[in-house]
Amino acid sequence: MTINEGAGASQTAATDIEVIVPQGELDLDNLLPLTLQLERAALAGPAVVLDASGITFGDSSFLRVLLSVGRQTDLRIAAPRPVLERLIRIVGMDQVLKVYPTVEAAKAAPVPV
Question: The whole model's pTM is what?
Answer without folding.
Answer: 0.86
